[in-house]
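Subject: design request, 450 residues
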């Protein structure tokens, strides 16, 4: 493929990225689907030449590009969430109850179900099966924009308490922000099983990989976010108060500092970035500066997602799925249509009355369970693990994860818009029925007649 043609294709793709969100707003078709299809088209035509995508050879490139894409998305998610998390307030923890259930119940169930499916009926070695479950369990903050909150709500937007009224969107957004980091302990477990486990064995994994690194990542992220927020909003010198200037690049600086310092301290950088964004968002919550930062991050995320999705579509027709068999197809289909929806629904059973989860109707729980979008994060975790240990099923893992991500892009992309509109209509009808005065045949009328 000539360099000139690459420029033309990238220019056309950027134009698509700019036009598609508005053009497809009324249709049950998402921009990611179109971008993947464009990549497929390029890969199946003569203009691709004899290019063959070998994910094994390109693993370092895939890892770093996917890593940065997820980091940018996590920063955007953290800045978009309006609902604060104040550790000292019990009510604040309770407000995040849907998130804790998805992280503490749905995610482990998904990892276990995929791993048991792969190692049992499908005959995959246990380390590879565990890696497959860990890579496919986290929902993706990159491709789930159609079912997530749109951005920071500010004073004057009609929401004085800056709190998402849509529990479905809040649950899916906050889950995607946190579970990318929480999948790491299980990825490391697969790496240890495939190679040489460190001294300490299970106790070391539980104490450090499962607990220690999580706490380090959260602590570093909160600290970096607090320092930068103090600088931007409340610095003694006006020249340092970037919020007054409106310089949005602070968001990218925060992203890089939080991730780099957390990884340097051996914590989970993904969690650090999300915690950093949430901490910055907690300062001066009504300030327009949050929207400026979110807009910049969103633009960069769009560009990176464009490259990843075009590459995914191109790779599908040029070698990525060359090792896909019926086992990989079965894993993808069961994950998207059975395992994740069931795990998500089970996560909300046994709730207490008066809690956020109790307010979720059965259709809302089904929607939360179903829309566990798989995407760029899964590709990153797979590339990361394969760079730290050798797995005999390496090429099969690439094909299976690639197929599952493509399936999720199509299925969830087609259904997101109509399903979310259906939920909104149900809420509007319920609200209208609640506001409607009871007639003679209604409960109040019958009570008066009695």
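Subject: RE: design request

Done. Sequence follows.
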């Amino acid at each position: 493929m000539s360099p000139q043609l690459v420029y033309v294709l990238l220019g056309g793709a950027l134009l698509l990225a700019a036009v598609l969100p508005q053009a497809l707003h009324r249709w049950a078709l998402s921009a990611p689907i179109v971008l993947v299809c464009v990549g497929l088209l390029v890969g199946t035509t003569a203009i691709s030449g004899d290019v063959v995508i070998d994910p094994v050879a390109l693993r370092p490139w895939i890892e770093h590009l996917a890593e940065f894409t997820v980091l940018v998305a996590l920063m955007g998610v953290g800045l978009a969430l309006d609902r604060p998390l104040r550790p000292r307030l019990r009510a604040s923890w309770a407000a995040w109850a849907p998130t804790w259930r998805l992280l503490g119940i749905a995610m482990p169930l998904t990892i276990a179900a995929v791993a048991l499916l792969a190692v049992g009926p499908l005959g995959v070695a246990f380390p590879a099966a565990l890696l497959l479950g860990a890579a496919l369990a986290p929902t993706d903050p990159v491709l789930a924009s159609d079912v997530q909150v749109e951005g920071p709500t500010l004073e004057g937007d009609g929401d004085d308490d800056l709190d998402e009224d849509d529990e479905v969107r809040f649950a899916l957004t906050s889950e995607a922000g946190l579970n990318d980091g929480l999948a790491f302990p299980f990825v490391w477990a697969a790496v240890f099983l495939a190679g040489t486990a460190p001294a300490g064995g299970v106790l070391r994994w539980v104490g450090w990989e499962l607990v220690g690194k999580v706490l380090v990542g959260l602590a570093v992220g909160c600290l970096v976010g607090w320092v930068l927020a103090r600088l931007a909003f409340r610095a003694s010198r006006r020249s340092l108060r970037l919020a007054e200037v409106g310089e949005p690049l602070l968001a990218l600086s925060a992203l890089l500092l939080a991730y780099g310092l957390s990884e340097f301290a051996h914590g989970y950088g993904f969690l650090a970035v999300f915690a950093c964004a949430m901490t910055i968002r907690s300062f001066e919550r009504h300030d327009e500066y949050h929207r400026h930062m979110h807009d910049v991050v969103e633009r960069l995320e769009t560009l990176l997602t464009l490259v990843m999705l075009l590459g995914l579509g191109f790779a599908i027709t040029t070698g990525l799925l060359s090792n896909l068999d019926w086992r990989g197809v079965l894993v993808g289909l069961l994950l998207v249509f059975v395992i994740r929806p069931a795990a998500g629904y089970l996560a909300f059973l046994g709730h207490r009355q008066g809690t956020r989860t109790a307010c979720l109707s059965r259709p809302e729980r089904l929607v939360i369970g179903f829309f566990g979008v798989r995407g760029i994060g899964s590709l990153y975790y797979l590339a990361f693990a394969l760079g730290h240990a050798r797995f005999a099923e390496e090429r099969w893992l690439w094909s299976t994860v690639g197929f599952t991500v493509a399936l999720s892009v199509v299925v969830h992309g087609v259904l997101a818009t109509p399903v979310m509109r259906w939920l909104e209509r149900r809420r509007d009808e319920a609200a209208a029925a609640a506001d409607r005065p009871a007639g003679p045949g209604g409960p109040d009328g019958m009570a008066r007649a009695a």
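The first helix runs from residue 3 to 23.
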